[in-house]
C-alpha cells in the first residue's frame, strides 16, 4: 500500500457500493484471490470514464469482468467496451457476469493473449484501461498509442508496484527484477513519448494517466522528447 492506511480506510468508508452484482463479484474475487481493481482506484477509473464520455473503451485484462462492469455503469449508453483476457476460467466467469448484468451487447470479450490481439485491433478508442501483465506494458505501448484517438485517455494500473518501484534494482527480490526494470522503462517511456501527456498518481498500487495529444495543435509544447530532439 502506497498511501497511509488510515487515509485509505477513510476513503473506503466513503464508498457506498456499486450495486449488488458488482459488490458480490468484488467479495467473491477477494475470497478467491482473483486480482481486481482496488476500491479507491476504481472510484478514480469511474470518475474519469464518466468525465471522458467515451464512445469506445478498450480494457486489457478482464479478469472476471468487475472493472468492465464498473465502467459500463458510467459510460454513455451508446459506448462499447472491448476487453481482453487469456485465462479460460476467468473468461467463463466474466461472460457469466456480463450476462447477469445484461451487458452482453455492449461488452465484447476477446479471448487470447493481449500482445497478439492488440496487433489486430484497429481502434480508435477514446479510453483505454491497461490492467494485465505488468511486465508487458512496455511491449504493448506502441500498439496502445496507435489505438488511441486524439484526446484519448490511457489509465494504466499497478505502475508503482506497492511502492517498490522507488527501490534500486538490487533492492527488489531477484525474481521481481525484470518486471521492476520494465515498469520503470514504461514510466520513462510514457513521460518521454511526444504524443503523450502523462502523470503518475500514487493511488492504490499506482496509476499512470496519459492523454494522447493531437500533435498538430500541440507544437512547441516543450515536451522532453521534443527538447531531446532539438538537442537543447
Ligand atoms: C489485475 S487482473 C484484471 C482485473 C480487472 N481489470 C478488474 O479490475 O476487474 C489482470 C488480468 O489480466 C490477465 N492477463 C495477464 N496477462 C495477459 C495477457 N498477456 N493477455 C491477456 N490477458 C492477460 C490475467 O489473466 C488477469 O485476469
What gap, in angstroms, lies between the N and C termini? 39 Å
How many helix segments? 9
Helices and strands: which structural class?
alpha/beta
Instruction: Give the beta-strand count.
Output: 7
What would you call the quaternary organization? single chain
| Biggest sheet details | 7 strands, mixed
Q: Please identify the top-level CATH class.
A: Alpha Beta
- Spell out the CATH superfamily: Vaccinia Virus protein VP39
Note the beta-strand portion: 15-25%
CATH domain fold name: Rossmann fold
The radius of gyration is 18 Å
Estimate the mean pLDDT confidence.
Answer: 90
- Described by the principal axes of the CA atoms, the overall outline is globular
Task: Encode the helix/strand succession as letters.
Answer: HHHEHEHEHEHEHEEH
CATH architect. name? 3-Layer(aba) Sandwich
- Helix content bin: 40-55%
How does this structure look, described?
Helix content is 43%, strand content 19%. The protein is α/β, with parallel strands linked by helices. The chain has a single domain (5-213), classed as Rossmann fold. It has a 7-stranded mixed beta sheet, with helices on both faces. Helix 3 packs parallel to helix 4 (66-74) and helix 6 (114-120) packs parallel to helix 7. Residues 221-232 have low confidence and may be disordered. The structure holds S-adenosylmethionine (SAM). S-adenosylmethionine binds next to helix 4, strand 2 and helix 6.
Amino acid at each position: 500500500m502506497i498511501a497511509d492506511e488510515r487515509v485509505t480506510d477513510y476513503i473506503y468508508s466513503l464508498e457506498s457500493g456499486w450495486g449488488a452484482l458488482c459488490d458480490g463479484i468484488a467479495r467473491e474475487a477477494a475470497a478467491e484471490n482473483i486480482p481486481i481493481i482496488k476500491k479507491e482506484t476504481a472510484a478514480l477509473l469511474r470518475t474519469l470514464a464518466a468525465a471522458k464520455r467515451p464512445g469506445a473503451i478498450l480494457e486489457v485484462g478482464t479478469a472476471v469482468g468487475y472493472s468492465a462492469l464498473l465502467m459500463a455503469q458510467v459510460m454513455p449508453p451508446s459506448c462499447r467496451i472491448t476487453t481482453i483476457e487469456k485465462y479460460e476460467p476467468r473468461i467463463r466467469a466474466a461472460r457469466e457476469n456480463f450476462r447477469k448484468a445484461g451487458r452482453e451487447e455492449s461488452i465484447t470479450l476477446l479471448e487470447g493473449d493481449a500482445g497478439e490481439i492488440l496487433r489486430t485491433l484497429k481502434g480508435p478508442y477514446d479510453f483505454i484501461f491497461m490492467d494485465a501483465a505488468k511486465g508487458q506494458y512496455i511491449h504493448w505501448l506502441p500498439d496502445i498509442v496507435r489505438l488511441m484517438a486524439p484526446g484519448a485517455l490511457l489509465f494504466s494500473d499497478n505502475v508503482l508496484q506497492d511502492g517498490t518501484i522507488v527501490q534500486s534494482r538490487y533492492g527488489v527480490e531477484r525474481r521481481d527484477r525484470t518486471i521492476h526494470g520494465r515498469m520503470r522503462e514504461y514510466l520513462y517511456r510514457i513521460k518521454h513519448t511526444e504524443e503523450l501527456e502523462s502523470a503518475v498518481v500514487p493511488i492504490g498500487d499506482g496509476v499512470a494517466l496519459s492523454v494522447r495529444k493531437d500533435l498538430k495543435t500541440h507544437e512547441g509544447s516543450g515536451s522532453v522528447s521534443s527538447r531531446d530532439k532539438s538537442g537543447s
